[in-house]
Write a structure and sequence with these properties.
The mean pLDDT is about 95. The two termini are about 35 Å apart. The chain has about 300 residues and is an alpha/beta fold. Strands 1, 2, 3, 4, 5, 6, 7, 10, 11 and 12 form a 10-stranded mixed beta sheet that branches. The protein is globular. The longest helix has 18 residues. Helix 6 packs parallel to helix 8. The protein has a domain of about 200 residues: Vaccinia Virus protein VP39 (Rossmann fold), CATH 3.40.50.150. The chain binds S-adenosylmethionine. It comes from Rhodovibrio salinarum. Keywords: Methyltransferase, Transferase. This is Class I SAM-dependent methyltransferase. GO terms for molecular function: methyltransferase activity.
Length: about 300
């Protein structure tokens, strides 16, 4: 979540919590909007190793079944190269049928309803062109908007409007972190993390915690019908590995922002890890999901 390079291990740790946290009502509205289409063109921006696809694909079905064509865009070819293996394991664990294709996979499955999907991973730096596809029924992204700039979101909203696609943008960090129990240093670390988030990232000056709210405002201004939902992570001691990774990342970001506070931040991290190891630490991390539908 901090820094510009994302490790597959970090994306693996967050995948189940992301999936649990996402807003089902927005997904149901989206499925209703897409109902009746036999084939869906779906573009996933900043797809990483494909977690967003694995969450959404079985949920975008209706009773007649639907064929989904997914284009997964990311700047990082190492992450994209993990998509087929991770998605194959995911599909096989659910008893879906998997067939190799040139670039990706074809999966046939039955969730609430039958679906077939094919996957085309494609390397793309989205900074210059926020939506490098000719057409789409749905554009989606997860855990991306803290990285992007206001200019980027304006260009994205305009391009989305031109192609007439819906957008579901999930799990944008919103700047709220609440710990239980609290320890000295929590407020300072949260403030420094949020400051770090607003630094220069791969998309220019990042909006950080404002990304989700600014996206909603820009998409509404462009003419879309908007629905939003708060989708916090609620992590407990059983999320030990994710929490350790998260707290270490926060401490690194906070120290980078305020090097003269590095000692105090290290002491804060030790207190947090001690609490976790004694089975106590809980933390809520705020996120926002945004659904934008072209007016019907
Ligand atoms: C936090 S990860 C989220 C990955 C995935 N959506 C998920 O939920 O697991 C952010 C992703 O954005 C990608 N990314 C960052 N800057 C990018 C850029 N300029 N163009 C394309 N992808 C970018 C990263 O490589 C990374 O995969």
């Amino acid at each position: 979540m901090v820094g510009d390079a994302f490790e597959a291990n970090w994306l693996d740790l967050r995948e189940p919590v992301d999936s649990e946290s996402r807003a089902r009502p927005l997904e149901r509205l989206l499925t209703q909007h897409l109902r009746g289409r036999e084939r869906l063109e779906i573009t996933d921006l900043g797809a990483g190793t494909g977690s967003n696809l694995r969450h959404l694909a079985p949920r975008l079905t209706d009773s007649r079944g639907v064929q989904q064509h997914w284009t997964l865009l990311d700047a990082d070819t190492a992450l994209l190269s993990d998509v087929p293996a991770r998605t194959r394991s995911w599909a096989q664990a659910r008893g879906y049928t998997v067939v190799d294709q040139n670039e990706g996979l074809e999966i046939t499955g039955r969730a609430e309803a039958p679906f077939t999907l094919d996957i085309a991973p494609r390397q793309a730096n989205l900074q210059a062109d926020p939506l490098p596809v000719a057409r789409a029924d749905l554009v989606t992204a997860s855990a991306l908007l803290d990285l992007v700039s206001r200019d980027w979101l304006q260009a994205f909203a305009q391009r989305l409007w031109e192609i007439g696609a819906a957008a579901l943008i999930a799990l944008s960090y919103d700047g709220h972190i609440a710990w239980q129990p609290q320890v000295a240093g929590d407020e300072e670390v949260m403030r420094l993390v949020n400051q770090h988030q607003r630094g220069e990232k791969t998309f220019g000056t990042a909006l950080g915690p404002d990304g989700g709210a600014v996206a909603a405002a820009e998409l509404e201004a462009a003419g879309f019908e908007l629905e939003t939902a708060q989708t916090p992570w609620r992590l407990g001691p059983s999320d030990q590995a994710l929490q350790q990774h998260l707290h270490a990342g926060w401490a690194a970001a906070a120290s980078e922002t305020a090097p003269h506070r590095a000692e105090a931040i290290r002491a804060w991290l030790e207190r947090r890890i001690d609490l976790l190891e004694s089975g106590q630490g809980q933390v809520t991390v705020g996120h926002l999901d945004v659904l934008a539908l072209p007016p019907g």
